Amino acid sequence: MMKMLGLFEKLGDNALYYVNQAGRMGIFLFYSVVSVFRPPYKIFPTVRQIYIIGTLSIFVILFTGAFTGMVLGLQGYHTLRKFGAQGLLGSAVALSLIRELGPVLAALMVTGRAGSAICAEIGIMRISEQIDALECMAIDPHRFIMAPKFMAGIISLPLLTAIFDVTGILGGYVVGVKLLGANEGAYFSSMYKDVEFEDIYMGFVKSLCFGLLIIWISASKGYYVHLERGGGFGAEGVSITTTNAVVLCSVAILLFDYFLTSVLL
Amino acid sequence: MNAQPVVRLIDVWKSFDSQPILKGVNLSLMEGKTTVIVGASGQGKTLIIKHILGLIRPDSGKVLFYGKEINSVSKKELMEIRMNFGVLFQNAALFDSMTVFDNVALPLRERTKKSGEEIKKTVHEKLVMMDLEGSDDKYPAQLSGGMRKRVGLARALVLEPRIIFFDEPTSGLDVAKSNEIYRVFFRTQQKLGYTAVIVSHDVPKILKLADYVALLHDGVIHGCLTPEEFQLSQEPLIREYVETTMGPLYSSETEEEL
Ligand SMILES: Nc1ncnc2c1ncn2[C@@H]1O[C@H](COP(=O)(O)OP(=O)(O)OP(=O)(O)O)[C@@H](O)[C@H]1O
Ligand SMILES: [Mg+2]
Does residue A146 lie in a domain region? Predict the structure, then answer.
């Protein structure tokens, strides 16, 4: 009986914690998004964040994009050859990149590079009382720290995804056409024929949502690092919270990907 | 001059992990006056300041700012209240990825419409006042502990606040520097007429600045007295504190009077 009570207590505790966390993350998102739209706009800090989140991610995106495209070319060519449909290689590579892999993989890369950095940065600001100091100076941390990051995330992710898609398509071209000898003309013409506006639109919406999701989760995890359970304190607290943020981001990206696909299809 | 309370704490209780720290704190901060909070380490002095700043909610009791409860006002109102604050945290809480100059300039940039030139001038004024010229481009990690404190003070004073909260402004400073800081406080207080709360272990020197002294002991404020009354108080706790911090000199004086 006592054991049962203990179990229920734990369950209730857990439930409360997660409801609480969801609540504060919701409030966090609300305040941050509102502050993005409130003038005066923070143009210079936003550009700086675009540099940190976007520009500095380009190399990773180019690299992973190229290899993803290359493996798609390789796999696609061998699979399509079984049906004698090598001519469709171009559209197969392009569609899988534009609709799925581009947004998802670019988002996962940015999570690893920028999401973790954002969480750690804000977490350290929290534990060293810098966020309290901002509040006491009547400077809204949402406006001052979060708004530029949110703007930058929403602007960067679609652009990075576009870069990912293009390098991927070129990677597929190198492997499929140059290495394996698929028809060069067919590679591009099938792409022209089969890729429609809806496909690009879907990729665009996804990357936009992922951009928001990454910044939201990593920034709010950092912002509430002192409330993170099992987080410990100080440096270890920040490190555990950062790990949690990256895991949650990645899971959320894949969940949302399914959700968005089913809505947009 | 009939001073009215700017901030009032009424029966504030706060526990951490069911260990009570503040056990019914009552304190009024008078307009234009300097209140010094003293007390042993770990008694909750910093905690009291954080309650007044609205960073921590009391378990029970009220924190009133001009009669308004600081924990139940809207975010916007809280912001407006904090416009009047100048705060030095115990650890200075400088923005560690910004230079000294940017740290001090930040309130001006975010809260005023001053031009770059004016900002530069004001910031340099404050840095000179804190004896920090030449450290503009350093980062907080490159400063000594005492320098960090002084940057924190410069940042707290840069907007000419109406209420200041200084948590141990002179800990970590040498005697000459801390005397200089006290002189700066005195002059700025004369000029701005601000209300001040200073937490300090620097008794008896800090008493020269104080209009009121409050002793925090065991979660309760003992006496919010003028420095003279405080030093001569017969209340055992205050007397013990005065004796331990100022030596037997004072106690023999009071004994002679008896
Ligand atoms: N966030 C917190 N969680 C748990 N306990 C806390 C927290 N903040 C403060 N305390 C406890 O409250 C007590 C008072 O802390 P506070 O920092 O106010 O002391 P203080 O009077 O400022 O001491 P000092 O003179 O050394 O600065 C301490 O025992 C501390 O352990
Ligand atoms: Mg303290």
Answer: yes
CA atoms within 13 A on the CB side of B223: 22
Range of the domain at A116: 44-264
3-state secondary structure B24-74: EEEEEEECCCEEEEECCCCCCHHHHHHHHHCCCCCCEEEEEECCEECCCCC
User: Do residue A138 and residue B85 have CB atoms under 8 angstroms apart?
Assistant: yes
Whether residue B255 has pLDDT greater than 70: no
Distance, CA of A146 to CA of B115 (rounded, Å): 25
Beta-strand pair B220-225/B212-217: antiparallel
pLDDT in tens, B142-163: 999 889 999 999 999 999 899 9
Nearest to A224 by CA among A28, A89, A6, A18: A28
Q: Which residues of B fall within a CB distance of 8 Å from A138?
A: 79-80, 82-83, 85, 111
Domain B1-84+200-258 has CATH 3.40.50.2000: no
ipTM: 0.89
Q: Which residue of B has its CA nearest to A140?
A: B79
pTM to 2 decimal places: 0.90
Bin B41: left if φ > 0, else alpha if -120 < ψ < 50, else beta.
Answer: beta
Residue A12 forms part of a structural domain: no
Q: How far apart are CA A242 and CA A112, in angstroms?
A: 10
Per-residue pLDDT, A39: 83
| Mean pLDDT for the stretch of residues B163-179 | 89
A28 contacts in B (CB within 8 Å)?
none
Beta carbons of B32 and B5 less than 8 angstroms apart? no
Residue identified by tokens 């409130």 is A38
User: Going by DSSP bridges, is the β-strand pair B195-199/B34-38 parallel, antiparallel, or unpaired?
Assistant: parallel
